[in-house]
Write a structure and sequence with these properties.
2 copies of one chain form a homodimer. Chain A is an alpha/beta fold and about 375 residues long. Chain A has 14 helices and 11 strands. Chain A has 2 domains: about 140 residues, Peroxisomal Thiolase, Chain A, domain 1 (3-Layer(aba) Sandwich), CATH 3.40.47.10; about 230 residues, Peroxisomal Thiolase, Chain A, domain 1 (3-Layer(aba) Sandwich), CATH 3.40.47.10. The longest helix of chain A has 16 residues.
Chain lengths: ~375, ~375
């Protein structure tokens, strides 16, 4: 397989973008990424989007976005793995360049969630319709069950959950593209409206419109353009049972464990070699569970770790979600996996401003669909 | 890029499968393909599906299908390019094996269209919502405009359109998996209910439930298994403007022209080297236009060619849609592109029974999304 690199990135502000259509959002992010990379053409386009059909009544998203980008006849394909759609789109771009079929591929992600659809109902299509959704469960409910089990099994506390939100909002307050770029206190989190016990409003990622795009290329292209680039040293994906009730454990996400094993093996590194990690914190409990399943902390110790500051930018141990994460930056589901890659691209190039991790050289992005039925992991390195 | 081959295939009967869910359908097709190939594991899964969210309220189709196949933690990703979703899924499987990332990939497609959704409305999400659908147009209307323009510009006749349906039903009558596996007469086609002038009921592909899957592998795997295999000698994809009104011409599908150019170049062959072709006959006019755009006939002569029998199995010129095509076999949109590959796999292995093309050695599959905004073309060869 050929070396594959990221040579440019662009994203919209995340938020409620009432004056922008899904096409506007994708085009804005893509044009920024193209400009940033300096390429004069694109060989192929992938678009990660979870449910443009249900959110805005538009399928066939690859073709329509290539059209509005003015890029016909460039091939364009939509990729969907629920909230891991962005990570999956990046993986397809990686595979296409690695195969030698293309030199320059645009990997984008987009979601327009604020457009009148019942968002909770649309998101629930990422769970098992027959065995979960028809019984009335929603995603806050599924993750609340994970949280309850984790608290029961390992003594994880309400304060530890809140610490995830506090840290991510602190990081997000330094990210101009964040939807909720302000700090919150532990008290604010713990007194916010109850959503699904024990998860409160400030434990949940928000409903977001947004787009993100990166330019993936061969090493030859990167060297010719003489650009700052970041190498993809691992791409791994794994599946788990879609329904929570089918799993052996509620407190371990097997797709994360399996994808991480593959990714570490492919990159030839250990968890301690990573300088930062973007994880899929759709709910505060998700960050705690994933930080354990990625091997950063012993099982059951993820809550303690975040409360003790081991995942903060300043700690030096393993800064998690320096971008603000889904929690503060926002979670336009199809765009999230690409936005994670963008954070790594900026951090590894030393361009993350007030949230820069010192001497960041290797970073990981972990993007997840449903209650962890899909997990896509990438490791990027700068030399 | 490594050599990539198809080593097994399986599909469900196409039709109104009221007693089967989308999961049942995909699992049935996949298990048949796995059994046919003789493999003992799968490295990765792609699922082509256009709109499972709107048809059956289920997104995250990769993960749920991997789960019901009992295949966790194998990575599974859904690919969507409207009615070209199956072809696009096959292309991703091809790229993954070509890259060296995987040895054995399952490429499947599925759609459950008969489940209560307003099918015409769901299919319309493959067109431009803002500029086409909101004005009241549907796919029969879009293809009717193409037909009118083709008739006006080239003198294509009602009889020629009917000849497509007559030929494809004749072929489909020899395909046990066809939804409408019976013959029709030109008179029946021309007297069937008007849908959108000049297109009548028997000019339109039906609403279909169905699944199809193939096993894509490296040459090493194929040789080890000592299986009949068919080599993928070209994979190409192209986009066009999504809205018909944005195109220079209504009577040429530019995505087909561009993808065909690439495919012929990659395979190193000319149109006359092909022994058969499966084309995307969602409407009779589509087969005529595509047969011209693929270079089989001079522009404007596609109607005459089918009426004169040049595309029949017996003619020897270029048999088109030996499977019965979308018209007779049925069109479960996400599965169609894979079912086309299956027809080539059977024909090139000499296993197409009563519809066998003599000495078939090279075949093409052309799968299309929307009114031609996406086109995916594959060329397969047996040695």
């Amino acid at each position: 397989m050929r070396d594959v690199v990221v040579i440019g990135a662009g994203m919209t502000k995340f938020g409620e973008l009432w004056d922008k259509s899904i096409k506007d959002i994708f085009v804005e992010a893509s044009l920024k990424a193209i400009k940033d990379s300096g390429v004069d053409h694109i060989d192929s386009i992938y678009v990660g989007a979870m449910s443009s059909g249900l959110f805005v009544g538009q399928e066939h998203l690859g073709a329509i976005l290539a059209d509005y980008l003015g890029m016909n006849p460039v091939p364009a394909t939509r990729v969907e793995s629920a909230c891991a759609s962005g990570g999956a789109a990046f993986r397809q771009a990686y595979l296409e360049v690695a195969s030698g079929a293309s030199e320059i591929v645009l990997a984008g992600g987009v979601e327009k969630m604020n457009d009148g659809a019942d968002v909770t109902e649309v998101l629930a299509t990422a769970a098992d319709q027959e065995y979960e959704v028809y019984q009335g469960i929603t995603f806050p409910g599924l993750y609340a069950m994970i949280a309850k089990a984790h608290m029961h099994q390992y003594g994880t506390t309400r304060e530890q959950l809140a610490a995830v939100a506090v840290k991510n909002h602190r990081n997000g307050s330094k990210n101009k593209n964040a939807q909720f770029g302000f700090e919150v206190t532990p008290e604010q989190v713990m007194k916010s409206t109850m959503v699904s016990d024990p998860l409160r409003l400030l434990d949940c990622s928000p409903v977001t419109d947004g787009g993100a795009a990166v330019i993936v290329a061969s090493m030859d292209v990167a060297k010719k353009l003489n650009k700052n680039f970041v190498r993809v040293i691992a791409s791994a994906q794994a599946s788990d049972t879609i329904a929570l009730h089918s799993r052996e454990s509620f407190t371990t996400l097997n797709s994360v464990v399996k994808a991480a094993e593959k990714a570490y093996r492919m990159a030839g590194i250990k968890p301690t070699d990573l300088n930062l990690c973007e994880v899929h914190d759709c709910f505060t409990i998700a960050e705690i569970v994933v930080s354990e399943d990625l091997g950063f902390f012993e099982k059951g110790k993820g809550g303690e770790a975040v409360l003790n500051g081991l995942t903060s930018i300043e700690s030096g141990k393993i800064p998690i979600n320096t971008s603000g994460g889904l929690k503060s930056k926002g979670h336009p589901v199809g765009a999230t996996g690409i936005a994670q890659i963008i954070e790594l691209f900026e951090q590894l190039n030393g361009k993350a401003g007030g949230r820069q991790v010192k001497n960041a050289r290797i970073g990981m992005a972990q993007n997840m669909g449903g209650s962890g039925a899909s997990s896509v992991i990438h490791i990027l390195e700068v030399k």
